[in-house]
Design goal:
This protein has helices at residues 2-8, 13-41, 43-63, 67-84, 87-98, 105-134, 139-156, 173-191, 195-214, 218-228, 237-261, 263-269, 273-296, 300-328, 334-378, 380-383. It is mostly helical. It has a single domain, classed as MFS general substrate transporter like domains (Growth Hormone, Chain: A, Up-down Bundle), CATH 1.20.1250.20.
């Protein structure tokens, strides 16, 4: 409901895109230091700092409806994103390594993401109910604090082994601390020198960055559709919208949960994992373009269906990318490597978000989606991944 919330507050699509861009730039600034902190001091504390940042930003969004305040709230939210991105995935991969289960990484992460999407499906119904009864979208920020506090407490119960290799004060003092930072940073720089890793990072960053840029624009599409369809016409407009948006997102997240859990099966049907990643990239680009074209023709129901398929594809492709990257990056610097991936992604989102917002204001959401799909096609030659040479 984030875009609908900002629209309710009177913001244009360009202003919304600017906020998203600020969030990504701030995340970019925080990304590498927080990844190094996670690898050097412990991933659990990194996640705790993340949840605290999220909670503070939610309070600011709820209590201070002002564009300037939103900028600062986005920056604080970005610090939470920076502490989180890469870190939790590195903890999952560390768990698999400890238990000799790394061969199941795509399947395991797919199931993890699947359960996350199932949780989002339930959350969408709760959010819709809150909007329905309150008549406002901002109540969602206040309600979101509860699960984040629960997540914070849960994170403190994670075993210390998942922190990875860290330097304790009694084991080395200042010199070992500086050495650990230097080694981690050196390894992080090294991963960008590999053509395979660089291609994999660019592929993931451009595709996931595009997904992150356009995914929330399903909300105004659903809003327009909810206003047009002749059901619940006796209800207030916002209540009708909350029912349609909540129901569609519930179905959407159930489908994406299913697709995440089956990512490993789909990738195995392809000739190789790189082939599966490249095919998913091109299909995703096509789905964005088709969605934009259908919305431009006011064929909302068809556009919504195609957009939902695009969501499902993202949750199939993401575990594939993670599995491919884990084959290329050592587990010791995995948090830094994945933070590097996220850093590239934030650059993509920071650039594309204002572009998407500008064209959405000028030629509509449908036209803007087609523009973004065109950009994704142009960069494909530099993002296509290859089979690793033995």
């Amino acid at each position: 409901f984030i875009i609908l919330f900002f629209r309710e507050m009177g913001l244009s699509f360009l202003e919304i895109g600017t906020l998203f861009s600020i969030r990504e730039i701030a995340t970019n600034v925080f990304e590498i230091p927080t990844g190094i902190i996670a690898d050097s001091f412990g991933r659990r504390m990194s996640m705790v700092f993340s949840f605290i940042s999220y909670i503070i930003s939610f309070l600011m969004f709820f209590f201070f409806p002002n564009f300037i305040i939103y900028i600062f709230a986005m920056i604080i939210f970005a610090s939470g994103e920076a502490f989180r991105t890469g870190t939790h995935k590195a903890m999952i991969l560390e768990y698999l390594k400890i238990n000799n289960l790394t061969k199941y990484k795509v399947d395991y992460y797919g199931h993890t993401r699947g359960w996350s999407q199932f949780g989002s499906a339930i959350s969408s119904l709760i959010a819709a109910a809150l909007v329905f009864y309150s008549g406002s979208y901002k109540i969602i920020f206040l309600a979101s604090i509860v699960p984040y506090v629960a997540d914070l407490i849960l994170m403190l119960t994670y075993p210390k082994e998942l922190d990875g290799e860290i330097i304790k004060e009694r084991e080395g003092g200042k010199k070992k601390f500086i050495h650990q930072i230097a080694v981690t940073f050196k390894d992080f720089i090294f991963i960008f020198k590999s053509k395979y890793i660089l291609k994999a990072l660019l592929n993931s960053a451009f595709y996931d960055g595009t997904f992150k840029t356009v995914k929330d624009y399903l909300q105004p599409i659903l809003k327009q559709y909810a206003i047009m369809i002749p059901i619940f016409i006796y209800m207030e407009k916002e209540k009708r919208i909350s029912i349609v948006v909540g129901f569609v997102y519930f179905i959407l997240f159930l489908l994406t949960s299913f697709s995440s859990r089956n990512s490993d099966r789909i990738s195995k049907r392809m000739r190789s994992l790189p082939t599966a990643i490249n095919v998913a990239y091109l299909v995703g680009m096509g789905l964005i373009a088709i969605t934009g074209f259908l919305i431009h023709l006011n064929l909302y129901i068809l556009g919504i269906i195609v957009f939902v398929v695009f969501y499902m594809l993202e949750n199939i492709k993401r575990p594939m990318n993670l599995g491919y990257l884990s084959d290329l990056i050592s587990s010791r610097v995995m948090a830094s490597g994945l933070s590097g991936e996220s850093q590239l992604k934030t650059v993509v989102v920071a650039i594309l978000s204002p572009i998407m917002g500008f064209f959405a204001d000028k030629i509509g959401v449908g036209g803007a989606l087609m523009v973004i799909a065109g950009i994704l096609l142009i960069v494909f030659p530099i993002t296509s991944v290859k089979r690793i040479e033995e």
